Amino acid sequence: MSDLLKGNFKTKNEVVAPEVAEETLEDRFERTALKRLGGSIAFVSKKKVMWEFKPKS
Amino acid sequence: MAKVLLINPTVREEDVPRHVPYGMALLAAIAIKAGHLVQVYDENAWRKGDAVTRQVLEADDWDLIGLGGITTAYGAIKKIVGMAREICPRAVITLGGGVLTSMPQDMMDFLPEVDVGVIGEAFVTFPEMLDMIDAGNRDWKKCNGTISRNAEGKLVLSPMRALIPELDVLPYPAWDLFPLEEVYFKNSESLYSEEGMMAQRRLDINGSLGCSLVCKFCFHLGIAGDMRYEEAKDGGVDVAFDRKGSYTRTIRYHSPEYIVKMVKHAYDTYKIDFIAFIDENLMTMDQYSGRTWLKEICRLWHEYGLAPKKNPDGTWTGVYWGGTSHASLCTQEILKIMREAGCSQLVYGYESFDQSVMKALGKGATPANNIRSFFWTLEAGIRPIPNQIIGFPNETFDSLRADMDAWQKLGIVVKPHFATPYPGSEWYTMYRQHILQQYKGDLERFILDLGDASKSSAIICHNFNAIELVGLRDMMMSFNWRRIDEYEKIWRINHRIPDGKPSTLYPGFAPHMTLDLPEPKLSLATAG
Ligand code: B12
Predict the structure, then answer these.
(1) Which of 3.40.50.2300, 2.40.50.140, 3.50.50.60, 2.40.37.10 would CATH assign to domain B3-167?
(2) I need a surface site. Which of A57, B83, B246, B304 has the fewest CB within 10 A?
């Protein structure tokens, strides 16, 4: 049983912590780079790219 | 017996969770003592996302769902009460804490999902509400200290709840209901002193409620005698706090025995090694007690075997501790006694090293006292934490230079906060129109924008706007006197202030602060 809810009785339904997905290498890189932002450290936050590249035909 | 779910909403997302919510932990203990069925979900500690919060809400048939916190938790609270109303239509949704108390009517308007707001101290109101639920009574206007809705949906304010006279009647916080081992102890580090940094098992405690000072940026949560119910212009009732010429306070503190026994209990039960006193100000209490309170706490700290002893490897037995002091109220004698009992760090709201800024602030301290207390504290072997603010209403180039001068001479390394009018503070009352103006009249936008005062939100400085303050802070931190001198020249031209005249638009509002917006209209009925 998970301990997310703490109290003085047993609840009807259990609260189950979701499986935490392993952090991807991409996420780890972006998190680490963010901490060092400045100087020559700058990066593309890939999930935040909103534009699409449409080359003129 | 009422089935209660308490949820501690996420706050200060930019940092890891470090503080068990003290008020909520006390309320949980009170409810359990009264025989109720209580569960706590510490969303702020776990940070598991909305899917888990939904599961929590679905875990039982809750009679009451209670949330609370400070104003900056508003965004998280809004989200949770939305889910709670949808998943638990039968439950009474309750909100308390500073977020509600500072602006009860506005909050109830923003959050239609909330049935009952608990204004100010909840030690009696909350268990009384649970008893009412057990009795099938939902006539909240009969319960003092609440704001609720009548059948027509109008807000109803019950009479003000009196503060409990004696704090020692309170049980210890229900620490067991919060993830100490899983989350909080891992984040024990308190980067204010060497010992604070090394702490492995820190807990917070609160030894007193109240503060005799009237700093204009401060809010006392309506639990310090700072709150008054006043007749409003429209004949209704206003919940009012500090205002020029109208300050009220009630000072309460736990006995030294209660405090030290509680720390001993935490030491024996949780093996704590550090205590952070979250009291508004330890020194104001000490002064109020006739200089007996802290001395006695320190004496008992030794007597109960809590005074720390260092091991050769830097670890220790016993409990180091820290809290908040005051520049004018500390004495050399007490600082020395505190150090001997294990005090390693004291926060000083020095705020500014400029005489006119300090005078306008209402803090009862001067730059000279700031400097005196700084040296006394260092001499005692305690690290002073020299908090600084810029962007005061009457901040000028010269006051900023006074800060820089002091930082340079005293070796202070600081990224100052921006003066911020948090709801409940005198600044909020004074500058409400100007705040609204900066958010196009949308008060909720301001509330959602509030976070740590290291970032700018509503500006209340008459001389500098947000962009100027951010730039000036940067230049101050790198001691770039030249750039600041240069900018003052440009500023004077822009504001048509000739050389030799003080570089200020204060008093009298800056042009960008003059628009008068009407107060938002609210429907408010008063319980008889
Ligand atoms: C611990 C603390 C924090 C903690 C967490 C607080 C928490 N989760 O409660 C942390 C470190 C996160 C914090 C951060 C900040 N804080 Co702070 N903090 C405090 C402190 C020192 C103690 C709070 C406390 O426990 N008081 C004692 C207990 C007993 O009171 P309580 O929790 O409010 O509970 C009582 C009632 O309010 C009510 N209640 C509370 N919860 C609930 C829930 C329910 C269901 C009910 C019915 C009732 C209820 O019942 C309780 C018993 O009466 C206070 C100052 C003080 N000494 O009070 C400032 C204070 C709360 N903080 C304040 C401020 C300004 C900040 C910051 C914005 C400062 C900054 N650095 O910029 C940041 C926020 C930054 C961010 N990004 O969000 C202001 C509040 C402003 C406001 N309008 O809300 C205070 C009052 C300081 C001041 N004097 O101005 N803070």
Answers:
(1) 3.40.50.2300
(2) A57
